[in-house]
Structure formats: structure tokens, C-alpha cells
């Protein structure tokens, strides 16, 4: 757990820092949303105020007609409109007009009245199958481009007719849907816009005209150029950093009344999109607001990023400090462990040296006995005994060198067995694949083989005949479970029994196999001899090749 503390510290501090950065980021986004919504509401108020101002003009015109009971001449209407200075005070207003309500078939009477009032004949157009006719009889400003408006029956056009029918039913104002102003009258220039209608009532109806109420004589209407109207509303200082889209009804390209020229900022996407629904003279509109490049967020987006980076740096610094402390503690622990191990190894080395000297003396005496038993005279004894002592010395020298170089398992066994039984080993006593041993494995197995061979010499049949000893080794398993298995077999006729007391040699063998080599060792004392099985992980000493 201790070694994972720097990682855990880094993760904990990083998570806390990133969480704080996340909260800061979302707070920044929420502040930007609230600020832009306030800006969008300001823009909406400007639009609604401008529209209310224009509609108040229509209400004033209605009041004039009501005061005169609908009897307004062309000259009076023109004078009234001129006094308004519409170009200056009512930008976006195309004009105000009066529609005469007549039944289908009464067009001739309406045309006579227009001729009388204007001195110029105007026909009611276009032809229609509708029951009602609503031709334009008054319109201001009536410049040459608008002259064709006189006589145009708005009831023949579906969008206008829908609004006029609603105006027939009550005294409220009713806006039409999106229309192209001037298109139906053949004007040279057309504009996208809308119209607002309101019913005119008279106390008497001399011509007998009757709509939903018998007092309806016609309709006043105001025509608005959408682009000029909304641009004027939004151009008040200070300019607002909003891109505005106004739709008649639902959001659809065919219903677009107005769109700002300044494009929205693409990086915001629809994240700061503000949608508002308004009602204009009974007509629902949808207004969309998006921020432009002039919109500034209340706080910098770099703050959460800097906070997150600072948190990560802090987490890294804490992890490094923890790591250095851990390394210092590990170094102290390692030093203590090394010191204890060095003392243990020193003591073990002293005991090993004493034990090995005893074994060497025992081997020398055993060689002397065997040599003397087979020698015919002193000269032969001296020659054989000296050769065997020289072999022991040479084998000891080779074993010492093998501790610092890679050693072959078979060669190591020959050296150790040669020290005990002499260099001339019978064929077939050793069998197994070539196995290259590293330094640690060579040292441990060298001592182990030495002890096993010495014990075999002292207590086993191999002391009389080395052919009673067989050693073989092989690999078992695959991957991480692969093991090197070594079998030491001593054959004999005498009954072997497990020793009542464990000597130093046995302890040394067990320590080498289990501690140094992380393996296992089992002994089987049988009537016909001894079997020792040693299982250790394969030494990491290079490529192992199979040999017969």
C-alpha cells in the first residue's frame, strides 16, 4: 500500500482540482448564459416597444375615423398623415390605408365613390368568388409607386383575408402573416412585411352593408416593412451584441420576417441560444437571439483552464514529494536489511567455511581409504592419491570461476561430483538438457550438490560405487508455471532412514533451495535408496537448448 501512496495522492489532488475547475467552468458558462439572456430580453423590449409605437399610430387613426363617423376625405386623410412625419418618427411603416367593406356585386358603387373622391377612375381588382370585397380606397403616403394600391381587394389574398376575417369578429387589432408588400399590386419594389387590421364601425350604414355586425363599414390597416422596423428598433445605442431572427409562427425558413446582418459567433453554437415567444396583435411570433462577436463573457474561460492546470501541477508536486519520501524510507529500510543480511551471510560464511573444511578432510580421508584399498604398493597409492587431490583443487578452481560467469548445470554437477568421487565419472550418471545458470543459481546449486554428494559418500551406496548415483533434470510446465525439476537418486541394498537430527548440511541445502532459489525440495528415504526432488523456477541465464 505504501508504494501506491504517491499515485493515490496524485489522483486525489488531481480529482479535487479538476472538480473545482469543472465547477468554475460551469459557473462561467452559467454567468455567460444569464448575461446573454438579459441582453436578449433588452433586445426584445426594444422590438416590442417599437411595434407598440407603430400600433399606437393605427389606434390614433382609428380614433380619428371614429370621431368623424368614418367620413374622412382624401385630403383630410393626407393632411393627417403628413402631420405625423412618418419617415422620421415611424421608420418601417410603409403606410396606412382604409379598406371599404362591400358585398360581392356592389363593386360599381364603390368605384363611383372613388371616382367622385379622386376625380380619377379606379377599378376594384382582381376578380374573385368571395362573398365580400375589401378594396383599398384610401392610402398614405400615396406616391406614384403606390397608386396601383387603390382599388386592390385584399380579401382576395388568403393571408390578408385570414386577418380581415378575424378583425370582422371583434374590435381588436389583428396582424397578418408574412406577406410581400407591393407584390399583388404590381409595384416596382416589394418588401417583406406584415399588416395589422382593425374594424371601423359607424352609427348608420346608408348602403345597407352588413358584416358580423351591421355597423362595420370597413377596416383600417397599417403596412410594415419588417427589415426597416426591426433594424430601427435594434439600432438604438448602445448597440446590443445579438443576432436576431424573427419568425411568423414557428421557426421555418418560409416564415422568416427578419434576420440581423451581423452573424452569430459559431464557437458558441446553440449553447447561448435564447428563444422568446411574443404575441403581436393576436399573431404569435418566435424570436431567436444568438451572441455576436461583440458579446463578452462576464469571466474569462481561461480561469477554469488555469485552475485545472495549477491543480495538476500541485498534484504532481505532492506526488513527487511523497515519492521522494518513499524512496528515502525504502533506502533506509534497504540499508537496514542489507546490513542484517550481510551479518547473516558473514555468520553463514564462517559456518560454511568450517563445515566445508571438515567435509574436505572427510573427502580426503575417504579418497585415501579408497585409494589404499585398491593400491598394490605405496608408489601406486602415492600416485593415485596425489592425482585425486589435484583433481579436487582443479574442480574447486572451476567452481569458483563459475560463480562469476554463466555455468552449465551439467558441468557444475561434474565438478561437484568429481570433487567427491573423482574426475572419472561413469557414463550415464548425468542426463538432462543444457541449462545455463546465473551467478545466484550457480552458487546455490553448487553448495547443494556438494552437500548431497558428501552425504552420498558418507552414508549411501555411492560411497562404495559411484554408479549407484543417478542425476537427471528436465523442464515441466509452460509460461509462468514452468519449473526446472532435478532428481537425485541413490540406489543401495541397505535400509536408509531419515536422520533424527537435522544437521547443518541439510539446513544449508534447504536454505539454498527455498530461500535463494524460491523452490521446493522433497526427500524420500526408501528401502532401496534415497530420492531427492528439487523444483526451482528456470534460471534467467539466457536461451536454454535441449540436448540428449
Mind explaining what this structure looks like?
Residues 205-214 and 541-548 have low confidence and may be disordered. Among the domains are: 72-232, Beta-Lactamase (2-Layer Sandwich), CATH 3.30.450; 375-536, 2-Layer Sandwich (Heat Shock Protein 90). Helices cover 47% and strands 20% of the residues. Helix 1 crosses helix 6 (226-234) and helix 9 runs parallel beside helix 10. The strands form five sheets. Strands 1, 4, 5, 6, 7 and 8 form a six-stranded antiparallel β-sheet that branches. A five-stranded mixed β-sheet has the order 14-16-17-19-18, with helices on one face. The protein has 548 residues and is of the alpha+beta class. It starts with a helix and ends in a 12-residue tail after the last strand.
Shape category: rod-shaped
Number of helices: 11
Strand content: 15-25%
- The helix-strand sequence is HHHEEHEEHEEEEHEEEEHHEHEEHEEHEE
How many individual β-strands? 19
Uncertain segments are 205-214, 541-548
Average pLDDT rating? 82
Task: Calculate the terminal CA-CA distance, rounded to whole Å.
Answer: 48 Å
| The CATH C-level class name of one domain | Alpha Beta
Helical content (DSSP H or I, runs of 4+): 40-55%
Described by strand count, sense and barrel closure, the largest sheet is:
6 strands, antiparallel
CATH fold description of one domain:
Heat Shock Protein 90
Rg, please? 57 Å
Please state the structural category.
Answer: alpha+beta
Instruction: Provide the CATH superfamily of one domain.
Output: Histidine kinase-like ATPase, C-terminal domain
What's the architecture of one domain in CATH terms? 2-Layer Sandwich
Enzyme class: transferase
Protein name: histidine kinase
Keywords: ATP-binding, Kinase, Membrane, Nucleotide-binding, Phosphoprotein, Transferase, Transmembrane, Transmembrane helix
EC number: 2.7.13.3
